[in-house]
Amino acid sequence: MSKFIDFHKTVLKQVGNLYLDTCSELPNHQLNLCNPSDGQGYTELYDFNRLCVGKGQYWLHHPLKMSANTQTYSLGLTILLSGTHHIQNHQTNQEYEFQSPMIILRKGILGLQTLYLPEHKQMSLISLDFDESLLKILKSSTVDNHLLQFFFDGDTPALKAIQIPHKDILHHAQYLLNLPVAKNMLDLLHLEGAALELLSLLLQKNTQDLIKPAIQNAISILETQFDQKITIRDLSKQVGMNECDLKRLFKQSTGHTIGHFLLKTRMKYAQSLLKKGMSIEHVANQIGYSSTQYFKRIFEQHFGYIP
Fold it and tell me: CA nearest 195: which of 184, 206, 203, 207?
């Protein structure tokens, strides 16, 4: 029995027949397929004790207005990866418009809410719901995290939107979303591991607040243009800082040299592409290596095994 899934079912009963209930034979697992008359897609939930992970993708044939009165105390967050959610909270008379990519934090008894969903737009999301016992465990070890602080600041029911702190979270959330629907216990174990890694990324310290804007800009360039040839000279020109200062402050702020940071970024992305079954040749090209053999040698040196 899962209180998170029971809560989800209760909400779905109030919002009409958007989803067809699909019974899962797996424990604490729920799959809902979108009603073909309304659109296409699914939501999937798995409760693995104190934490429930949900993921879903859907596309609607027509605009949809759904209202539900939630009188259960809940804590959680939603990572909106694509689409737009417009929410009206009738209890507080507040309206919210959340545009992807974004993290939506929620806590307390939110009461009657109406969700407005647009037509002909792909919507996808990841949700993490947890109970107060997990929150107490996390409080002692993540005091510097702004996201977690939201759940400790007062008891007033609230919704809050924040930007996704860094691209690792976005990449991993997308990876979790793309996992196939669970069909056996091994799939559930994989889903659990991916959810816990995502939670770990979300609860890291807010080190970005301490990094100078020029270094933040350099990090952003390395994380988005890693498939290109990046020299320290070019990077220093782009961020407006001389090469010596850039190298010194980058190492001081991140704990890595620029070259090592770029290598880690490339290898992490390569690993995610290989998990999806892409060929070594394609992966090497995607991360900026023209030689497959060179990529394999660098990958082996970094991870300790041949891709």
Answer: 203
Q: Which two tokens stand for residue 181?
A: 């629907």
Q: CA-to-CA distance for 109 and 73, rounded, in angstroms?
A: 5
Tokens 């010596």 belong to 244
Q: Which residue has the tokens 């899934």?
A: 5
Task: Show Cβ contacts of residue 65 under 8 Å, excluding neighbours closer than 6 positions.
Answer: 114, 115, 116, 117
Q: What's the chain's length in residues?
A: 307
CB 82 within 8 A of CB 59: no
Rg (CA), the chain: 22
Say if strands 111-117 and 123-130 run parallel, antiparallel, or are unpaired: unpaired
> Parallel, antiparallel, or unpaired for β 102-108 and 74-82?
antiparallel
Q: Which two tokens mark 98? A: 């959340």
Its pTM stands at 0.69
| pLDDT of the chain, 307 residues: tens digit per residue | 578 888 888 887 777 777 876 778 899 999 999 889 889 999 999 999 889 999 999 999 998 888 888 788 889 999 999 998 889 888 778 888 888 899 999 998 888 888 888 888 899 999 999 888 887 777 765 556 777 778 887 777 788 888 887 778 888 999 999 999 999 999 999 999 999 999 988 887 554 544 578 888 899 899 899 999 899 999 999 988 889 889 988 887 778 899 999 999 999 999 989 988 899 999 999 999 989 999 999 999 988 888 8
Three-state DSSP class for residue 128: strand
Question: How far lies 38's CA from each of 20, 62, 64, 87, 277, in Å?
Answer: 11, 7, 9, 19, 33
User: What is the torsion angle, in degrees rounded to the nearest 10, for the CA atoms of residue 291, residue 298, residue 283 and residue 54?
Assistant: -170
The gap between the terminal CA atoms of the chain, to the nearest Å, is 41
